[in-house]
Amino acid sequence: DADVTQTPRNRITKTGKRIMLECSQTKGHDRMYWYRQDPGLGLRLIYYSFDVKDINKGEISDGYSVSRQAQAKFSLSLESAIPNQTALYFCATSFSRGTDTQYFGPGTRLTVL
Amino acid sequence: AQTVTQSQPEMSVQEAETVTLSCTYDTSESDYYLFWYKQPPSRQMILVIRQEAYKQQNATENRFSVNFQKAAKSFSLKISDSQLGDAAMYFCAYRRGNFGNEKLTFGTGTRLTIIP
Lengths: 113, 116
What we know:
Chain A is mainly β. Helix content of chain A is about 0%, strand content about 55%.
């Protein structure tokens, strides 16, 4: 089984809809992250969480919110999706007491029409 | 702000040959980490190699090695004995070493094609 899983893997939605992307991990890591990948721009950080009670904005948090339901679960929400949020979304995890290297999930491709 | 530049949007190499992907970065920090990630068509981001800035020795992982030039702020990836499975997008990434700052800054990627 994969250490970091994301659901759904693909999603098509309409402008104005609320969307939730979910991330779960079995690595036992304490830190979790959400990134967005656009063509030609690499990955950019949306939100990150050091533990269940510690959530921080990244460089492009506008239009997004997150919830850390448990150490192993970190969800990303788009309250009212817009077309320029069409992108590939990645969840990542890291362990603060290890090398702190970030390991990524398989990604969710989101299309907003 | 830290920036990461990958100046080669695309590269190609013959199978079994060696290829080097370039990466430069800009930072005023002395404590940081550098990474190469691979993204094959499956789109999974896979860690290839990691380098701590305080280590002078270049990191190696099997056929993958880096040439870390701290003064020049250069971090190139060498792939030896290229294989078809190496075909992917390769991203260089930077992270400050300070506690509490875990943001990865990525370059725009290099698409590597392996020619059979």
